[in-house]
Structures
1.
Amino acid sequence: MVKQLKQYDVIVIGAGNGGLAAAATCAKAGLSTLLLERHNIPGGSASSFVRGRFEFEPSLHELSGIGTPEEPGMVEEMFNRLGAEVDWCKHESTFRLIVPAKEDDTDAFVNENGVRVSVDARMPVGFEAFSRKLDELVPGSYESAMKAFDLAEKMYKAFDALGDGDNMGGIFKALKYMPDVMRMVSHTLQEGLDALGMPKKAQDIFNTYWCYMGVPASKFDFCYYMAMLHGYIKNGTGIPKLRSHEMSLAIDKVIRDNGGDIWYNSEVTKIITKDGKPAGVVVNGSKEVYGKRFICNASPNFVWNDLFDKKDIPQKQLQMTNARDVAVSLTTVYLGMNRTKEELGITDYSVFIAPTSDSDKQYAACHDFFSGYCIINCLNEIIPDCTPKGTSQLFLTTMTFGDVMRDIRPQDYKKFKTKVAKDMIETCEKALNISIMPYIEEIEIALPPTFSRYLNTPHGTPYGYMLNMWDSMIPRTVQFIGDQPFENFLFCGASQERGDGYGCAYHTGEKAAKLTIKALKEGK
Amino acid sequence: MASPIKTLKAKKFLPMLKARQARFSAAPADLPAGTDSSRIIAKALHPRAQYLKVAAVTKRADDCCSYTLVPDPARGTTALAYFGAGKYLTVFETIGGMPVTRAYSISSSPKDALDGKYELTIKRVDGGLVSQYILDNWKEGTEVTVSAPAGNFEYQPLRDAETVVCLAGGSGITPFLSMANAIADGDEDFKMILLYGSRNKDSILFFDELDALTKKTDKVRVVHVLSDADAASALPGAEQGFLTAALIQKYAPKDKPYSVFLCGPQQMYAFLDKELEKLELERKYIRHEMFGEFHNPQTQDDYPSDVPATVQITVTIQDETKTVTGRSCDSVMQTLEKNGIAVPARCRSGECGFCHSHLLRGKVYVPKQLEYRRLADAQFGCIHPCCSFPLTDLVLQVPAAK
């Protein structure tokens, strides 16, 4: 075999969304780039899998970063910048929230599905339309919703000021002139909506997307929720035509086309340090590769435990990791159905079914294995031909703290998975008054151990560390540089300042790449 | 009127930043927890490799042996990964300097894995390099390396009918034996009607074991289907002939849905797929074990003409590049292996995607029975080398075979 020995400008560890964006940005800037991935395909969460005649989307619900031709979203813009081509499918509605009624709810009514419910909110795209609909459901909420969206616009613009992390003074200066953003970041979502006078019942509907970040209203900072909501409500959302595997392969291609190397099935098993900072990596326990700078998409918990000698780890990194809360994890059931969505009676892409509309109560219930909180998605609503004729695909998601696995033995796991899936399917059948079980042609069930296997994060959480008030997005962004472990080693991905989400991970990867490019230019 | 947001204080922001760093400084500087209950389960069920030893060899027929495999602590495996009945292990071997892999269904009960035992049952395949090698070389004490249990050929109560008609041919009995044991052990719960095709009474594998299982549980019924002339007359209860739609109808429940599971040689699938069409079952009720290694692509209707007999394949794995010559009738994976290049492989049937690779130049033929690639793969030139046959010279990048 012909050996090509070289030292890379940058070694990127992990081809999740953050690592892909980082490697593509570096390669495109002309850096010699090596991307290392322990799995055989790119993407981490952004992937797909085939069972029988179905190809399932493993994680993506919707991308808030796909806008309109006049106002492209952040994800779309990044793909355009990189020259990565993806066929986007637009989604022109938001969510439907159904809270099945309890016996004693005297305000309950029977909805279009013939189910007695306390809440049935199908929310449209557009600030005005959304606010009107909210007002229809909870009279007196229009004005507060419009005010909230006005703040959302301000917050969304503040993202520009937060920039690429290379000018902290600039960020401070910019924030000074954004007092409302400062107010929002200092207060919780609940405090913010209370201040705007939004009725509690309307707040609960308004806060439905809390689970996309895994933080309930009493712990979520107001500004970040509003920034996120902006992305979903203003211009609608989008998803790739061929599952998120398409997005990951499109970026993979950009890296290759720009001379970058990608090694799959190539796990970093150790980081080699020299003079107290990273100098290279060991791949699959044997091959050494050297680099000037490093961008790491792997979870810090894993990195500190498995890749470094303890003496080489900056004390602050250990303290940070210990101080933070690992976020909630997921359970997902993927169903290939031998009926169309029309035959099944499914009318919405995304339905949130919850025993209570209160996000804090929903969050607290994640300590149970399954509390009745379940999101049901039907991909055919956005991509009608994503499955063969006469079929459809569904995925059901609930949030679960990984510690619910503590009493499950490996030999009980399969039965346990089936039980959880059964509960989730039955919950959806009941809440929508439809029949799912007889029409299942393919089923796959992913619990926290499944995500742990593929993501290598604590309990398989895709969310990184919880975006608590004290550790929320803007403080993380302002303190980004001081929080990084080494001058030549930056983290990216869900563990970083923006938490989870495809767009957030891409952003952190691109930002780490820009800082890396700049440092190399400056001869560092 | 001032906006109500002004009632919230902006001044809280700076102290928040200080408080955040103070919180970090106050935290312990120990290593964070290195594992958790989810990771423990994931690692227990999906070890990267399992290092085993042959503890016993049991002759099942002239050309077929069972191998009892136990952990080899000296090489780092102390316990076996538990599995769902129906799963397979991929065996890693090196034969004459050639790294090869083969997938074999586990024939033992899942419960046995908890007691540190797997059983693989291997029948000699005509011209089969690996089966031949194993039958000739594995003996008590042989070191064997296998993958984690893998595959999707399992009973799933939310999807499958309560009764499963299992169609087995030859050594295709192995996953069903595991399932029948799991039923008897209470680890699976379904009614199995096993129609097992063999040539004659003597060529039936696990005859006594199957007989014992039908006595242990009334959920397992076994019907031997013997193809040699008059063979059934020597065995009470056996059927004469082949597995057919008529035979399935004879034994399947009349009044409720049933699933059909198939495992056997490729010719059996080709024949039974046509037979099953007659039964007009919903597709969800028919499940095949993997196809197995595909040979002779040139016999397929959609195989193009004017394909050169030999091609050059240039392959890059990590930082090493090599060009080799291969035959167009061999899969890309076979050609690489024949040239001493290890390729990541599990199912060798196109299904698991473990060998997912990037084809940078050239064209390949993929038999439609084995087309399990993701939609975007075709668009971005990704292939599964185990079921891709070169039509031209190729340049490709393959993941490391770690």
2.
Amino acid sequence: MIPELGQFALILALLLAAAQSVFSFTGAARHNEIWMTAGVSSARGQFFFTGMAFLCLGYAFYANDFSVLYVASNSNSALPLQYRLAAIWGGHEGSMLLWTTTLALWTVAVTVFSRHLPAVFRARLLGTMGLISIGFLAFILFSSNPFDRLIPAAMDGRDLNPLLQDPGMVFHPPVLYMGYVGFSVAFGFAIAALLGGELSPEWARWTRTWTTVAWMFLTVGIAFGSKWAYYELGWGGWWFWDAVENASFMPWLVGTALIHSLAVTEKRDAFKLWTVLLAIFAFSLSLLGTFLVRSGVLTSVHAFATDPKRGLFILAFLALVIGGALTLFALRAPRVGLGGRFGMVSRESFLLTNNVIMVAAAGAVMLGTLYPLFLDALGMGKISVGPPYFDTVFVPLMMPAIFLMGLAIFARWKNTELPALAIRLKWAFAVSVVTALILPLVMGKWTPLISLGLLMALWILTTAVVSLRERLLKRQGSWLTALINLPRAYQGMIVAHLGVAAFITGVTMVKGYEVEQDLRMSPGDTAQVGSYQFRFDSIHDEPGPNYTAARAHFSVTRNGNPVTVLEPEKRMYTVQTMPMTEAAIEPGLVNDLYVSLGEPVSNQAWAVRIYIKPFVQWIWAGCLMMAAGGFLALLDPRYRRRNKDQQEGEKA
Amino acid sequence: MKARHKRIAIIVAGLVALGIAAALVLNAFRSNLVFFYTPTQVSKGEAPKGTSFRIGGLVEQGSLKRAENSLDAHFFVTDTVQRIEVVYSGILPDLFKEGKGVVAQGKLGADGLFHADQVLAKHDENYMPPEAADALKQAQKAQKTLEAK
């Protein structure tokens, strides 16, 4: 019964999404309050029923209802409850439902927090989001229905892929989707602005809040995923330039460009068209990413051939959204206008350059990700693009971007004098270069790449320090209160940029100084890795809820002093008879100690990976700092003015 | 006139920068493409010498041999028609198993062996890496046309 209820709720949600669009757009066209209000109510109803469908699917997983095909293929009665619930988004159909539910959530948030927007604009925004909802709900109902029955019911489920049975699975997809789908709001704002033919600095201020929130979620979501890969895949990498990762990275790059370009649109009324275009691209890439990861096209382009309906729908939907938005852009762009002018050396020009670099980087990632798919789809052979491609493209692209990042903080809007900039930053530059050259020598190994990486991180750090110093010299009262009293937007920018510095430091140190050893070890053996001794004490069997594990015991010492005990596992998941490596990690501020078990290579001996990963935690800490910077910036009073507008709007 | 010259100069500079960036990207792209060959193609000598490429197929039953005192491994990758001997030193992935699909990346040595620096097996017991599946399909097709003749 419950699955049918879910199915029914989905149908109602689809109808309400249609109502949301029709009422909103008609209301906007006729300036009719009643129609527009009906649009808002439909949007809320749509959320109610989408959420209900989601809960119904959740219940089917909770109750182990293996008469539902999707549950039977992604869950098992022995699966612990938290993973049964996370299994809701363990496959294609459920992921699509999560996507739609997230979209409905954002839509409802827009209806609640947008009373300050002009009614017509708000109606167009909701209408656009309704169109996207229609697309996704129709896709689910017609080609990816999670409520399809399996008759006769399976005795038990085929289990969730053991790789996904991890706390990461509980958090990573919903947070990532909050980010992906959040860009739909920015997209809606862009379309509404194009329809109205007007784009004011106020528009940018409204859009900025939403975009920043979405970008924060995306940042944290990607960081979660990276961390998960690091400890779960058992080979200690944190980023593989895998198509699945690239799919989330492309919208992040464009989204990052977007939040910076929105800043210019708000402050200077410039970059208007560019901002709109970025909003369209960011969301288009989110869509592309969702489909890439979830449609099975990556495992085989021929997945489309086995289910042509699905593939056709996806291509048509992408073409409609992207093509429609760009057509509207082409038609309306001249009316929106270019906006304020600026000099060749100015904060605007620096930001624009970095924007272009971010988009170019996204383009390079896209080339490496999609080209093999195209070639395969056309039957022109199978190729793969190696990670070295992405590395060789990224480093040179990011160098000028990072350099400008430091400069842009100091540059004035409209026009700035280069010599003055040079004088203000000469110390920052000198300190960065000298430290970057010497520090690797102190640490015992010098390569150009390590120096370069440190230089970039140090440049961000020193410019931030100089900027803070300049501001704080004008202070009244103590340093601390002055620091707290700085504008929130400025604090946010500094924190986020320092996050980039922390991230670069982590990447540089791991790449430069990691120690990786694959060894053959028997119980009793000791291995010297870096300055640590790893002793393989013993190994024993340990039963788990739906697996049996071989758990090893390693004692780690340094110069005879005990450091820690690490217990990596090799698990055999019983339902799918699939082995899984569970690495044991001792995280630290400067070093991660990492041990994972390979396979047994004889009666006694095991293949063992022992890694020392310096500063690897800084990578994720840096991402969290970037997100925290976004959060600080949102606290800026000028966004709170909105609440005042809102209250006044309600009074009126 | 002066402002216009300046603008043209900016546009030209921008285009040049973009052109250089595009050239760098495409160059890096071309030199990092990894092509895929089936065991049959490799034994016919179609695979390149000295550059890295991928092979795919099944790990032949009973072919995996481990060295006594190191992590060196020997095994055959087969597409059911031809087989290639692969040498690899390191830890094999969790799902590496005799009789299952595998993809290896590496170079063909002067000794005729395939020296793999990467061995991939995907994360699903039933699921075959697309390259491996492709190799098997091509081999079967070739077999059929042979029999038809």
3.
Amino acid sequence: MRVIAAMSGGVDSAVAAARAVEAGHDVTGIHLALSRNPASYRSGARGCCTIEDSNDARRAADIIGIPFYVWDLSERFHEDVVEDFKAEYAAGRTPNPCLRCNEKIKFEAVLDRALALGFDAVVTGHYAEVRPAADGDGVELHRAQDGAKDQSYVLGVLTQDQLRHALFPLADTPKPLVREEAARRGLLVADKPDSHDICFVADGDSAGWLREKMPDIVGTAPGAIVDESGAVVGSHEGTLGMTIGQRRGLRLGVPAADGKPRFVLDIEPVSGVVTVGPREHLAVDRITGIKPRWCGTVPTRLEGAGVTVQLRAHGDEHRAVVVVGGDGSEVAIELLDPAYGIAPGQAAVIYDGTRVVGSATIAATGREQGAR
Amino acid sequence: MNRAPRTVYLDHAATTSMVPAAVDAMSAHLHEVGNASSLHASGRRARRVVEEARESIGAALGARPGEVVFTSGGTEADNLALKGAYWSRRAADPRRVRILSTGIEHHAILDPLEWLERRERAVVELLPVERDGRLSLTALRTALETHADEIALISVMWANNEVGTVQPIAEVVALAAEHGVPVHTDAVQAVGAVPVDFAGVGVDALSLTGHKLGGPYGVGALIARRELELTALLHGGGQERDVRSGTVDVPAIAGFAAAVELAVKEQSTYAARVGTLRDELIRGVLEVVPDAVLNGARPGPERLPGNAHFSFPGCEGDSLLMLLDAQGIECSTGSACSAGVPQPSHVLLAMGRSEAEARSSLRFSLGHGSTSDDVAALLAALGPCVERARAAGSR
């Protein structure tokens, strides 16, 4: 096949590209320019999107022996990922821009362009496995064996059509072996640190970034911290950057009656009211998901031993019963093991065993006793 | 992988291969010891090579040997001309803070100008160009008449690197002379391609570089009239007329001089041969892609003989470049990369094109060694590539 290898400048995508060459594909490496002015985004060794990363990707392509180009996706990235990130936060939700980027950039903008230019697939360094569907029709997305590196969560937004044109050559190779292989192949990025956090937020401080980009965003005004009875127990400098489940840094003036630690149970970004309470009350076992995306056939009801839901990257698997609403636009998730600290905007990715069934954006959460 | 068997190099404006005469001249000196500043016999031999090179470049370009200042290339020559002349002219009269230039200059001009503006209180006026890329002389006249006493320098490129338009340098010089303002020209693309006579045209300073005309990389020159005072950028041994320090690169200078001499000697036959090929290329491209638009001046004395530059409506130049590259055909989007990120060409934007038009463009540049087969190979591959790029561009 003729394939495009998306090369971030990191070790994973470099090894993935090398493996694609070895598998006999005709590989062209590309680096995505996600900002017209890379310096305006992340700088430093940890992230992606820097000039150094672009150069690292170029050198990896040299060593692998494939052509290399920079594709300017800055406009699409800005509109589909950065603006969406801001809008979600402005609406008081907590989005995951990495999922959005996979959905809209790597496997939509890049894939579409690649297909139009005569390529057959896009190769990335994600840790996940695409395999032929058990029923022989199409493909399935599965977790990587190495649970610590498994990235199927951030790929849970991909549709059957996108997955058919996706190659993840790392599949389930443990990360240390990927680094060893990179060193063996002479790739200079073999010991480059992993990237973390959100690539376009330079120092990892999302709240600070949002304040700078959107001085008028909701959540920057000081407000009250109340307990579940409504009594004021403290104050905060703005809800932006506070998360449900947070315990540290609340500086509550009034101690809890039982002396137990209190956690953020609820954040109302518009009024600025933050509610705190005991950890038990963080527990969530009802989730309403919207904007579902399915990797294959749209299910109506999923239950049983292998059915689980993951609510954040590298988060726990929760056994669950999933019911898809009548017209397919809403997903009701009942968690058999409660989850703690779940915020609207996060993605719920639904699994059957190791297979990714699909995903939905969390719109509301609740407990059996009543919705929150 | 099924890579194309043959490379068709259509990017001579980016750099062109060294001519054998330059390779010979350069390699002849690579084994020799001798610092041109040393006083002993080896030093004198090295110095002799440098001075002979200076004389031959001067002779080829209508300059006195003492006017040739060797530099590390075009960028350094441009920086020395702009900053060096600005500082000296401003020191002589503090009112002189204005620099006139054009919006289609190379970044080696635009970026130093921006730096002077930001750091040295310069007031830079980028004069408009016509749709074909020719400087508006009316605008220049107005600018001169409005602010003559405040103008430190005018810098107008001899010929544009992207669209190949040759500028009316003689007219620029004539207008500037009315007000006693010095003129610098970046002639990096012009030397060897069109007739260039330093004294004849009357500019005060002129930049050229080796690797665009069959010489080595990393060597170039600023030809500057003695009367033009230049403040040094590089301080040290004062090797080059005290305005440029650094041990001179004897072998590179020898290769550079051989290339300049040959390029100037063969300029008219080169221009005729390459111009014919270029016309063949333009005709062919417009046949294969009827809605392609040729940018720049009409083929003739106002256009570099090796330059063909097109917009392909509906295409991303980047996509087209990649598809052609996969067929072994090497060309350029013509635009500079800012930090590796493709930017729409500032030249086309200055020529009044939209961002989409600018992004849809591609430059094919011919040079010595280009053949009819190269043109034929491009024409054979271009149609399907444009079709593909269009499909991708509409997404």
